[in-house]
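Archive entry: two folds, one per protein. Generate the first.
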Amino acid sequence: MDLVDGIRVFVASVETGSFSGAAARLGMSPKLASKYMGELEAQLGTQLLHRTTRRLGLTAAGEQLMARAPDWLNELEEMTGELREARRGLSGTLRVSAPVTYGELRVLPLMRRFRALHPDLTIDLRLSDRFVDLAAEGIDVAIRIGRLDTSALIARKLGQISLLLVASPAHLDHAGRPETFGDLVPHCCIRDTNMRGDGAWPLTEDGQIHRITVSGPYLVNSARLARDLVIEGEGIALCHDYMVKADLDVGRLEHVLPGVCGPRLDVHAVYIGQRRLARRTRAFLDFVAANMFTEEARS
């Protein structure tokens, strides 16, 4: 066993909480991960982990190693990468998490552009609308929309998106075009349950926020489905601007109550702050910060 491989297994085991989690991250069997861990402890002459049927715990020696090992691994990877890639692009695996629809429409195109600059890079894009545990799942960067929960993560603001009231012309021709907040109440409204809160729509007019309780036959946990139902004429929805811009431009959708503003949501890139960032992670953060909200990205 190589010492570096053993330390990689150790760090991954601690961060994921199990040998099976470490094995999945590193692409090996749980049995081999456990073997590497035992060989590392034998080589260092000390026990690093307490093993129980439910979890792994750090010994005093394990805590001492864990305080330095992640940074050491990153520095080693960065040093060897710089030597190996002095005349090439970045390499290795970049693991990025993002919300499903935003990831499909905005993050994936950016990652393709980024990888085109670095063809030796492997992209591991994981789309989920839940807040993933970056350490447990080995994520380098997560793109998050909306209010950030308090955590030890470092956040870098990328920009903002707005929510717009939209409906199809056919629906508005049939049900009428709202002119006031009260006109929304009798309409069929499609509600995206991913939005935090009590289900009311927070709408701003003349600087004043109004919480409008709406109803309708569809509750969906997908921003894309809400937009698709609106296009089919099923009602009015509060949709992210990036998702409906093209539909508004060609007249497939109409902006309802254009003088009213929906919520504005911050978009952040977050990452673990206790460790040294790999060169590819730093480069990706700089790339998305420079390109996420350019006109090219919006089109």
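Generate the second and append.
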Amino acid sequence: MAYDDFKSRIREGWQHTLHGILARARSLGAKAVLAFDLDSTLFDNRPRQARILREFGSARGLTTLEACGVAHWTSGWDMKVAMRNCGLAAEQVEALYAEARAFWAQRFFTSEYCLDDVAIDGAAAFTYAVVGTGAQLIYVTGRHEGMREGTVGAMRRCGLALPGEGATHLIMKPALRDNDDAFKRDAHARLGTLGQVIAAFDNEPTHVNDYLQRFPEATVIHLATDHSGRPVQLLEAVVSIPHFTGGT
């Protein structure tokens, strides 16, 4: 499904689904498990993306890229679109893309750069609402352990519930090279040993569907923000939301 098409799945009154999740968490307390992805689910990564493209522009003397901002990232994680939106001609984008991508890869998956992330609207308040129910809040992210310090720092700066507050934990990939899909599936199995998984939140359609298939009794929430662009259809029972504002 195309990047913007998922937004058409958002239904009026989606906030009631979040209210219902919190009510169920309160009724179960510590037995309840709620799982949250980070990137494009609780965090908006576009400031990090834009910073890296600006720095690439500075390194290459490309003034059009030096002005890159959040507004230029209009098609998920597609850097080519962002480069064109900044003003580069299509042939320039093709000539520079491989180098820009390598420059990006050296920086994006680091603690230093993830500190630029900002919270999705309402995300911070919702994580604390979950903590307040007494349920287990488990962050399950494809970020690798080398990013733990920066990740916790970004959580603190953005006001999200921190690992160690209440029953809050952060599960990260052991190493950058590990496959995200395989890691997430292993992590889902681990969640099932901690209690009753009543809700899961993710932006990536593959991971969202995996949650629902493993935990069919859970409410699975898809953040209609951005995603990898893989042509994956969401399962019918998945609920799409734009953010968390109004959910507490």
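Annotation attached to the second fold: The chain has a mean pLDDT of 95. The domain at 3-44+119-241 is CATH 3.40.50.1000 (Rossmann fold).
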